[in-house]
Structures are given as C-alpha cells and as structure tokens.
Amino acid sequence: MKRAVIARGVLGAALMIVLWEATARGFHLPAYTLPAFSEILLSVWDQRASLLTAGRITTTESLIGYAFGCLCGIGLAMLVIVLPWARRVIVPVLLAINSVPVAAFSPLVLLWFGIGPSSKVVMVALAVGFTMFLSALAGFDRVDRRSVDLLRSFGAGPVAVLWRLRLPTALPMIAAGMRISTVRSLIVAIVTEMLGAQGGLGWVIYQAVVQIDFVQVWSAIFTASAISLTFFGLIGAAERRIIFWR
Amino acid sequence: MTRSGHAGRAAGRLLFGLLVAGLVWQGAVVGFGIRPVYLPRLTTILAAIAATPEAYAAGFLRTLAETLIGFAAGCVVGVLNGVVFFRAPKLRDMLFPLFVVSQTIPVIAFGALVVLWFGNTLLAKAVIAFYLTFFPVTVNTMLGLESVDPRQIDLLRSFGASRRSLLWRLQLPTALPQIFVALRLGASLSLVGAIVGEWFGDTTGLGVLLLQAMYNENVVGLWAAILCAAVLGTGFYAVISAAERRLVFWGAEQ
C-alpha cells in the first residue's frame, strides 16, 4: 500500500517532467514562455559556481534568522505563559504588528539595517518569530486544565508546570510551526534580497528579471527550491524522530 | 443580547482599542524621544496620508482588487481541487506530492515569472495571490472531507442519499470549519502576494507606495503605506472571520 503511494507520486512527477519537456520542445516555446526542463538543468550546471555562492549567502541569512526567530518566538511564548500579566500587554501589541503583511516591513528594515545580510536576517527572524510565537502559544494553551491543577496540587510552580507539562504537550505544534517556518524563512530572505542586496538568490533573480534572462530566473528558482526542499525535509525528519509518540 | 447589539458593542470595543493604541504610539514617540527615522509620530503619518489622500486611496483600492480577485479564484479552485482529490485518491497520490513541492518553491521568485508572462497588469498580481491561496484551501478541504464520520455516511446512504447529496449535505458542511482555517490563512497570504507582485514594476498599489518611499528614504511615507496595508489586512481578515462565525454557527475551532 505504502509502496504503491510512493510509486504513484514518482509516476506523477515523471509525467509532469515529460509533459513539460514535450510542451516546451514540441511547440517550440520561446524561453520567456517556458524553457525546456533539460535546458534549465543544463543552465544550473553551467552556472553552478555562481549559483552556489548566491545559494550559500541566502542559506546563511535564512538559517541565522531562523534560529533567532525560533528562540525569540518560543522564548516569548514561554515568558507570556509564566507571567500572565505580561500576556495582556505583549499579545495585543504582537497581534497588531502581525496584522501588517510581513513583506511590507521589508523596505523599512532595509532602510534601518542597510542592504547587507543583517537586514535579511532581521526580516527572517521577524517572520519566523511570529509564526513560532503563535504556534507555541497555541500549543501551551492546549494543555488540559485539570492536569495543570493536578500538578499545582503537588506544589509545582508555573515554571515546573511549563517544563513538565506544557512543553511536552506543545511540542507537536511547535514542531509543525518550525516545519512551516523553513519555507517561510527562505521566501522572506529572497524577497528582501530582491529589494536590495549585494548577493544571494533573490538578487540573482532580480538581476535576471531586469536583464530579461528567463533561463537564469528559472535556474535560480530551481536552486532555491532545492535548498528549501532540503531544509524542509531535514526539519520534517527531525520532527518524526523527536516526537516519536505521534 | 441581540445580534446588532452584540456587533455594536464589539465595534465600540474595537474603536476604544484603536484609540488606546494610537495614544500609546503617540505618547511613546513623544515621551521616549524616539527618532523619526525609526518611528514617526502617528499624527505626522496621518497628516501625510491626509495631504495626498488620492494616492493612498488609489493604491489601497488597486491592491484590494488584486487581493480579492486572487483570493476568490484561489478559494474556488482550492475547494474544487480538494473535492476532486477526495473523490479520486489515485489522482491525489500522483499530484499531491507535486503540489507540496510547488509550495516549497519560494513563491515570490515565481512571482517574477508571472509578471513576465502576464505583463504589468492587475491580472498578474491576482495570479500570484491566487497561487498563494489555493494550496492551503486544497489541503484543508481534503482533510475536512476525510474527517467525516463513516457511520454518518452509512446512515445517509441507508436513506438512499446520492453521492452528490452526501457531498452537499454532510461532507462539505463538516469540512467547513477546516476550510475556514485555510481561508483565514489565505486572506493574509493573498495580500502579501499582491504587494510583492507590485514590486516588479507597476504604477499604483500599496506595494508601489512602499517601494517609492524606500527609494526616497521617506520613512513617514513608508509608515503611511504600512498603516494602509495593516488596515487592509486586518479588515479582510475580520470580514472572513465574521463570515466564518455566520456560516459555521455550530462552533468553529479557533
């Protein structure tokens, strides 16, 4: 059964690639409509050095921002749980900031932090931080009221309740948030690079768009997708391993 | 309490909240002496909007149109996709992994291509907004349809219900809370798609206002555009949530 599902997935992917190649070659589509699949792969291979450099810049920015975002988001959610009075102040402020589409902050952050890597790290941390804060808080709140009361009756303080009860309960939601955030972190880094940067995949894409080099746009997208899939896969694998009880 | 009285009180509380937020903003900037490079006074920003209201109104409406068209198309296609995948599991096994992969693609990079294909039109931005919306809606529709209790299906079947009436009377209503979770997510995503789509060159829209203000290092203008985007985002989200409370009156998962 399981094997059949995988086989169908592979079949679907193979069919799509064949269809893509056949459409592009069969109809002699110009590159600005759709370059052939093989053509893009060749171009990625030809420019592997420059794409690797750009990919490394973007990956570094995303990873640092991702780490910061996860720490701040989860940490803030813990703080808010331990100190209920802080919750009434912090949560409305954060929700108000979060109501702005995150991309709208990119120009502002670029003005503040310049066009170097730091502005991308800040944007990624901001986007990941919000996602993580909201998922962690939702996870902590999911705890059964009676279990909290039981632990309390044994003399456990708020910190002990957080550590022994809330954190294990919230772990699946935190992990799901971290998995979704992987993709978000790369997207945000690339978007911010498009607005202004000294290097990185977003910068490559923007340059290629300006120069109307379509194969180059596709090559950068392929590279970005490969990084994004790897990151997503790694976090997903870690999730399955750590949260074994699901 | 009547429905209108309830809504009135909620609106009052919202107005009060906004007033307090505005006062805190203004007070913090004046009180702590925050430099205008970081956060200008709220009154300065509002004055900037009041000085050229046409530009902001035009940008607001343009972005709103892009977001709404993309969102509506994304919802329709997403629900249809979800139903088709639910009905044809083999097709789902073939296509769903591709869908997942397509979503790990940095969508915005794809946005550059969409603008190249459709030109700098309203349609191009709507397509990006659509692309961001349809995936969560597809997934949640599918999950919602699958979560129907098989005993309920058997019961309706025993009364002679056809597949179509099963779908309309049981499966879709059961999936509705899940679908609305995706719609709320899609509401914010489609707005991001529209704004970023405008960065690839356009003349009106909130994204354009943001970009122009950045190039002129005009922090007040930047904050004015951010404020407009926040109003648009919050308003859209509120409308979806209100529709959810109305339609899923038996209690949605929040």
Summary tags:
A: 246 residues, MetI-like fold, B: mainly alpha
* N-end to C-end Cα span of chain A: 21 Å
Tell me the CATH architecture of chain B: Orthogonal Bundle
Instruction: Specify the overall morphology of chain B.
Output: globular
Q: How can the largest sheet of chain B be summarized?
A: none
State the oligomer.
Answer: heterodimer
Using only C-alpha atoms, the radius of gyration of chain B works out to 22 Å
Q: Any idea what the CATH superfamily of chain B is called?
A: MetI-like
Predict the CATH topology of chain B. Answer: MetI-like fold
Calculate the mean pLDDT score of chain B and round it. Answer: 83
Query: What is the residue-averaged pLDDT of chain A?
Result: 85
User: What helical percentage do the residues of chain B reach?
Assistant: over 70%
Q: How many domains comprise the coordinates of chain B?
A: 1
Give the amount of beta strand of chain A, in percent: under 5%
Please report the number of helical segments of chain A. Answer: 10
CATH fold category name of chain A: MetI-like fold
- Helix count of chain B equals 10
Detail the poorly predicted runs of chain A.
none
Assign the structural class of chain A, choosing from mainly alpha, mainly beta, alpha/beta, alpha+beta, or little secondary structure: mainly alpha
Would you write up a description of this structure?
The complex is a heterodimer of chains A (about 250) and B (about 250). With about 250 residues, chain A is mostly helical. In chain A, helix 3 (about 50-80) packs antiparallel against helix 8 and helix 8 (about 160-195) runs antiparallel to helix 10. Chain A has helices at about 1-25, 35-45, 50-80, 85-100, 105-115, 115-140, 145-155, 160-195, 200-210, 215-240. Chain A has 10 helices and no strands. The longest helix of chain A is centred in the C-terminal third of the chain and has 38 residues, at about 160-195. Chain B is mainly alpha-helical and about 250 residues long. Chain B has a single domain, classed as MetI-like (MetI-like fold). In chain B, helix 3 packs antiparallel against helix 4 (about 90-105), helix 3 runs antiparallel to helix 8 (about 165-200) and helix 6 packs antiparallel against helix 8 (about 165-200). The interface between A and B is large, with 50 and 48 residues.
